[in-house]
Amino acid sequence: MQQSAGVHTINALKNAVACLVLLPRFLVTALMLWVLDFLCIRKRVLQKMREQEASPDDPPLCVSDSNRMFTWESLKAVWHGQKLDFFKTAHVGYLAPNTEVVQLGGEQKRRILDYAKGKRPLILNFGSCT
Predict the structure, then answer these.
(1) Is 47 part of any domain?
(2) What is the pLDDT of residues 26-50, one digit of tens each?
């Protein structure tokens, strides 16, 4: 029971640190989405002003109210994506993770680097049979 509480405490601390690290990146991304929306709103206001003094020869400018980038759904998606990126085990410039794999013909589990031989590069092909 105490071991379970310790694991929960470690996970809670890990998530708290992740939130503190991710928060500045998330806020910068949210600000960028807001600025893009602001530019779209500004464009729509300028379009309304242009319509008041426009000639019939000018082509229409299409700006939609439904194409918002600064929405709750987009902010949730940005947070989720940054959290996934933070917790991934493979990072650019570091060694590749040596994860466990299962052979097709049996139940035997091996590690990816078990298939490497000498100085020969190991190529992984993740494909589809469809």
Answers:
(1) yes
(2) 889 888 888 877 777 777 777 777 7
